[in-house]
Amino acid sequence: MNLIGNPAGKALWFIESHFHEELSLDDIASCGCVSRFHLSRAFEAATGFAVMRYVRARRLTEAARRLARGAPDILAVAVDAGYGSHEAFTRAFREQFGLTPEALRAQGHLDNLALMEPIKMDESLLAHLEPPRFVDGKPLLVAGSSERYHCESSSGIPAQWQRFNAIFGKIPGQVGRVAYGVCYNADDSGNFDYLCGVEVADFSGLPDELSRVRIGTQRYAVFTHSEHISTIRRTWNTIWNKWLPESGHAPADAPNFERYSEQFNPVTGMGGVEIWLPLRN
Known about the structure:
elongated, 2 domains, DNA-binding transcription factor activity, 8-stranded antiparallel β-sheet, 36% helix, 281 residues, single chain, 8 strands, Arc Repressor Mutant, subunit A, DNA-binding, Multidrug-efflux Transporter 1 Regulator Bmrr, Chain A, 9 helices, alpha+beta, 22% strand
């Protein structure tokens, strides 16, 4: 993989070269000459982890190795891992590994720990991504079922779609038969809301249990996802880490979405899927 234009690849190299130093999301984004927003989305698409969560896990893994070897000064290990106190380090360590630094040092081995080893970049970008078309999108009201996910635990989305299919076509004010998978409210920690929904004429009359997303007028790059729906992350990865850096465009901090036309077959998982990436004007 050519890392020259790959923000996630550059970030991994920078993190592995500098995680013993003070690091911020801005520092890591600067190494790839992209925004925090662009890097966060690109890194999550390529690795499945939030940037700073990965940094923390790598630091704690190296700290665990030192403790298993019998490091005498736990506070020194904590400071080297970026923590200002023994208490803060212990809380983070227990959250990461399920035991305290003292307990690990006493047991003297790492056999029962899930360590975060350096990630090798997934090189499975699409060999050929069809050039997008550019669309000035109209305002869109989308209603449906929404769940909060983390980029490391978004495997529940297919089951969310299965639940939503039971109400598809029955939503008050539904417009057409197109479905939308809308990603919004993303943060730097890798959390995001995902809504399975349909366009509606207005939000009045909707049951309270349905979520609503209002998408404003927006310029989009629209990509066709031609493979099985289970590989859509591969297409997103190629967009964020290859097409976007080479395109000269910048992403807008706005909802992005998958559009499932009537040609999409939910049984075979094929056909009629587009990815709409919002761009800065």
